[in-house]
Backbone:
């Protein structure tokens, strides 16, 4: 059985390790992805900030003492929109636990927290060609609202 709990301030390294493991697939969608980010000083700084920000949440999914997934979400400013937004910034489940409901539990718990804090909408982005992630988010109630584009200059 998988349990979802709040990450503690002393679990930065655990979150860096989880991120490093779950994002290995993303390099096939983004050749500009820094695969050393999670364990870098920038990755450490990111997770430290999330864990210390009262307008952010970071949850860990565990089976027994094994950490199998996480989610990090925080306030997102969209000045031209009316609602108060939370953005799922960073999320992943280790390969052995994918398609077993862990990601859905993480989403549900983070949105429950967000609603209790007065957030009205949740935002997430995904790589365009990562159809598994897009299907997952749609299954969890997310709809397309925009499309980001970039180019090399």
Residues:
């Amino acid at each position: 059985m998988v349990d979802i709990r709040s990450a503690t301030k002393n679990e930065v390294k655990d979150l860096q390790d989880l991120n490093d493991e779950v994002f290995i697939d993303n390099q096939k969608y983004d050749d500009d992805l820094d695969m050393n980010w999670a364990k870098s000083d920038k990755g450490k700084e990111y997770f430290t900030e999330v864990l210390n920000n009262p307008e952010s949440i970071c949850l860990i999914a565990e089976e027994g003492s094994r950490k199998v997934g996480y989610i990090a979400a925080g306030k997102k400013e969209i000045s031209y929109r009316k609602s108060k937004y939370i953005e799922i910034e960073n999320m992943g489940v280790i390969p052995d636990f994918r398609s077993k409901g862990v990601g859905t539990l993480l989403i549900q718990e983070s949105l429950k927290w967000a609603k209790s804090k007065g957030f009205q909408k949740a935002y997430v982005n995904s790589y365009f060609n990562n159809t598994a992630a897009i299907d997952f988010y749609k299954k969890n109630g997310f709809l397309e609202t925009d499309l980001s584009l970039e180019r090399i200059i």
The mean pLDDT is 94. The domain at 2-139 is CATH 3.40.630.30 (Aminopeptidase). The longest strand covers residues 66-76.
